[in-house]
Write a structure and sequence with these properties.
- The chain has 191 residues and is mainly α.
- It has one domain.
- Helices cover 77% and strands 0% of the residues.
- Helix 1 packs antiparallel against helix 3 and helix 6 packs across helix 7.
- The model has no long low-confidence stretch (mean pLDDT 90).
């Protein structure tokens, strides 16, 4: 079956996720810089989550570009990814409103981990069961970057219980690692 409806639906859900996150930003009651200072954790949480959602949107686009065929398993795997992404506004708000307290940061990290697992499952579903997507499987290769991300998320969740800032630093590190778009698929298409 074709992929266009899946891509359009995913783009729409991701756009809604970003919209929900920005609507959670509250306008300060005052016109001075002092009224903005209490909002820095909320804004910082939003920025980090916006970057993450943008990374998933970008990689989702690159992932489906060379895809020739999808089936029901791919649709469910994609919905699984969208489910975890849709929880991003909740954990973002919880973390920001509670000024990076331990449990909300750990929950944020858990959600990031589940998004990464769901994305990995989507990739495997696309590459294992569809012979028409062979070039995608070759481009993905062993997905070292994806496996490193999973380890960093788990380490970040554990370190959050030592100090929330340590976990948050690892989560931001993973985002920085993925901020540069994954060129494996583009290189493979160009060949």
């Amino acid at each position: 079956m074709g992929k266009s409806r899946l891509e359009a639906f995913s783009d729409g859900v991701i756009a809604i996720i970003i919209t929900i996150m920005v609507l959670e930003l509250k306008v300060p009651h005052g016109a001075t810089l002092d009224t903005m200072l209490p909002l820095w954790p909320v804004f910082l949480s939003y920025v980090l989550s916006f970057v993450y959602v943008g990374i998933y949107w970008n990689n989702h686009h690159h992932l489906f570009h060379p895809v020739h065929e999808i089936g029901g398993g791919v649709l469910w795997a994609n919905l699984h990814l969208l489910f975890w992404l849709s929880l991003t506004p909740f954990v973002t708000g919880w973390m920001g409103e509670n000024h990076f307290a331990t449990l909300p940061v750990a929950a944020y990290g858990f959600n990031l981990l589940m998004c990464a697992i769901a994305y990995s499952l989507l990739v495997r579903c696309l590459t294992l069961h569809h012979q028409g997507n062979k070039s995608l499987a070759e481009a993905i290769g062993n997905d070292r970057k994806g496996r490193i991300s999973l380890v960093m998320y788990i380490a970040g969740i554990c370190l959050t219980w030592v100090h929330a800032g340590l976990g948050l630093a690892l989560f931001a590190g993973v985002a920085l690692m993925w901020l540069i778009p994954d060129r494996r698929i583009e290189r493979r298409i160009a060949e």
